[in-house]
Amino acid sequence: MDKHIAYAGLTPELAARLCRALEDAPDPGAAALLARLTELREGRAAALLLELDGAPVPAAEPVIRCREVEIRPAARQVLRAGREIPLTPKEFDILYFLARNRGQVFTKEQIYRAVWDADYLLDDSNIMAFIRKLRKKLEPDPDDPVYILTIWGIGYKFSDE
Q1: In 9-154, beta strands by DSSP E
Q2: What is the pTM of this model?
């Protein structure tokens, strides 16, 4: 029997919805799953492995390619011309957010809310610093970027070429 292994992110909102659904589920396995999910939410477990009999496995997020850059979401890996570019978790999150919405312009506040999932602190310098660091690592010439573009007076976008 072939087994398909996939990674799925679990947001706090999704975890809460799953817990509510499992609390009233008549299936005897629901209580065990609820206990494991609760351990995960409380930080007493680092991961939850599920085997789904006959259920469709969600497809892995596709690799994003732009010129020499390749972004592999499942591995949280970025390559330029075949060489891995080490990024911090937040740098990766910002790059991935912009790249999966390539061509769309985002304000600094929109980027902040998407990546930090928190209230905006009215501090544009934080996002600007992350963009500057990303450009130093990603761009062939950080002073003349081709991937992360500034849209003056608005914010940033990932190249749509």
Answers
A1: 64-66, 69-72, 77-80, 83-84, 106-107, 148-151
A2: 0.63
